[in-house]
Amino acid sequence: MTIERTLSIIKPDATRRDLTGRINARFEEAGLKIVAQKRLRLTLEQAKAFYAVHAERAFYEDLCSYMCSGPIVVQVLEGENAIAQNREIMGATNPANADAGTIRAEFGESVEANSVHGSDASDTAVQEIAFFFSQIEIIP
Ligand code: CMP
Fold first, then answer.
1. pLDDT per residue over 45-85, tens digit each?
2. What's the confidence (pLDDT) of residue 34?
3. What is the DSSP string of 17-51?
């Protein structure tokens, strides 16, 4: 059994529609524990730093502006195979391609406003968690 942690973000399109509770119910019902959480609004500089890995992509500027357009909820999910499990619960990046029953299929508005972000691998999970949280803010 591999207990992992992953970074989860509830994006501005979802906070705007008051979907935080419904989204987090999906994680908790699947056995993922929310061990750290905060609501904040990113500056453009912070969004650009967080998504720096996509800096060369055509969608980077729009994505960063969008992520600053309203409040987000950042959180750490912990559980068995949390990284893969979270990605399964979220569904494909583009809501149009997401399996029925996933968060993005049910709530996503577009590939950009796709309601949630989740770390894609163990090294990025470590980096992304450290971007938002210090160790004393993570309480299993
Ligand atoms: P996320 O999991 O937050 O990681 C990067 C984000 O870029 C992704 O979700 C999408 O919301 C966003 N994005 C915008 N356009 C695209 C695109 N054409 N392909 C992939 N991701 C995109």
1. 999 999 999 999 999 999 999 999 999 999 999 999 999 99
2. 98
3. TT-HHHHHHHHHHTT-EEEEEEEE---HHHHHHHT
Report the C-alpha gap between 140 and 137 in whole angstroms. Answer: 10
**How is residue 119 written in tokens?**
């770390």
CA dist 61 and 1 (Å) reads: 39
Ligand 1 pocket test target in 63, 72, 83 with most atoms within 8 Å of CB: 63
Q: What is the pTM of this model?
A: 0.98
What's the CA-to-centroid distance between 112 and ligand 1, angstroms? 5
Q: How far is the CA of 96 from the centre of ligand 1 (A)?
A: 13
What mean pLDDT is predicted for residues 116-131? 98
Say which of 117, 125, 128, 132 is annotated catalytic. 117
